[in-house]
Every structure is written in structure tokens, then in C-alpha cells.
Prior knowledge:
It is a single chain. The protein has 162 residues and is of the alpha/beta class. The protein has a single domain (23-151), classed as Rossmann fold (3-Layer(aba) Sandwich). The protein is 35% helix and 20% strand. The chain has helices at 33-44, 58-68, 84-94, 109-118, 129-141; strands at residues 7-8, 24-29, 49-55, 72-76, 99-104, 122-125, 146-147. Strands 1-7-6-5-4-2-3 form a 7-stranded parallel β-sheet, sandwiched between helices. Helix 5 links the parallel strand 6 (122-125) and strand 7 (146-147). Helix 2 packs parallel to helix 3 and helix 3 packs parallel to helix 4. It is globular, with a radius of gyration of 15 Å. The termini are far apart. The relative contact order is 0.20. Mean pLDDT is 83; it is low at 1-20 and 155-162.
Amino acid sequence: MSSAPPILAVDLRFGGRHQQLGPVRILVVDDFEAWRRSIVSIIADDPELQVIHEASDGVEAVQMCQELQPDLVVLDVGLPKLSGLEAARQIRIVSPDSKILFLSVIPSQYVMREALRIGAAGYITKEDALRDLLPAVRAAVADREFLSFTILPEPQSDLPEE
């Protein structure tokens, strides 16, 4: 994981150390076909990005990563057969250079922290995907983290009073 601070949803600059030759090769993983098609449609708007495969469960995601070695995996958290988090752990082993961008329907800080601990490049909510997906993909390619505003940590209220 990069030591650079995360890019927030309002930071839409590409920036970073992108040295990719040719389009960024992306695997899209979501069990809901209509949602997967929406993700693919958003990605298709950028000529520097190419969806090379789609998968509908965690087991298939790991298999496709091992076979295709994508540059980036857009990975749903809630997947059948193997959760997105467990799939990510296995993807880190079979395709260590693939960056992982998580999507979730639930804005969970716990799941987000676990995703980042695994080595995810970012975490966005499906609610924010229309606005955040392309900036998050660009951030991941530039070795920067990206977090949706919906799940940004709230100020800690459990700090001791002075």
C-alpha cells in the first residue's frame, strides 16, 4: 500500500506515477449482472481503460486473476461462493501486481479498513460509483488510495476530555 495520503472523492486529478503502456486491463467482479453492466459502461467511457473479463463470484474472480493477471480488479464485497475480502486475499497471492478497488452497497468503516489492510487501492460505495468509479480507478493506477466520502471516518468522539 502506498504511503501517500488517500485521494478523496473531490480530488479528481489523475496525477501520480502512471507508466502503463496501452489500456489499463480491468476485471470487473459483481454477482448482480445489471450492476456489473453499469460498471463496465462507466469504464468504457475512458479510452485508457479496457474491461478484459467479467466474473460473478469470488471463486471465478480468483481464477480469472490467476489466468489473466489484470492491472486492476473492481471487486464487490458481497459475493457468492467466496466473499470479496477473501477473494482479495487470494488474488494478492495469485496475481500480486493486480490492484484491487472494492465496491460495496454498505458504507462500512470496518469492511473498508479490512479491505485497505488486505492491500486494496480503494473502497467506494455503489451509491457513489457514478461519481467516484473513474477517479478511483485513476487513483489506483497511480498507486494512490481512494475512499468514497460516504465512508470517510467520522471525527473520533471517544477521545478523552481535557
